[in-house]
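subagent[fold] <- orchestrator: predict structure for attached chain, return tokens only, no commentary.
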Amino acid sequence: MGTKYDYISLKNQYVQGTMSIRELCRANDIPTWSTVNARAKREDWDQKRTEFNRQVENKSLEHLAAKRATKIAEIQLDALEVIHAGILKMAEDMDAEEEYEVSGATKRRKVMRIHPRDLAILIDKFQSLIGQPTQINENRNLGIDVLTQADPETMRDLLAALRPRQVVGPTEGTSSRPDPSSARSH
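subagent[fold] -> orchestrator:
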């Protein structure tokens, strides 16, 4: 009659742990490790350990991803609240005035603590935070490629329009060409 061990417990200790079969046997006061080793090979405990570790890692990654997503959502909400508070403060300040004295006379001036440029910066940073473009560039054209779709006559007209206008004749005191006799020599 062979020695009976609690193989379910031994398998769970091995699969969920990091010790070798010999260390497992020592920890459980099993004098010979060969019987347990034969059972471990037959039931493929090494594969079960690998799968268990993969599942633990996946759960850890899922937990980390969920925690990160929650934190990002909190930051985005906080940023929106700051922008909202800035808008309300700017609206409040639009009519706000303060009194001050100059040479004994009381004067009033507008007070604006939050300026539109400050809000623009906040909104720009928020757009960046949520992965949206902070600038939108737009190009407008005629929708044709002039160099490949224009007929030769249109191209000649276009070139003529782009050339600088030439003076027909020299005006008094001016010349269309430089006068070589007026060049200075050093």
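orchestrator: received. Logging for downstream: Residues 7-75 form one domain. The chain has a mean pLDDT of 82.
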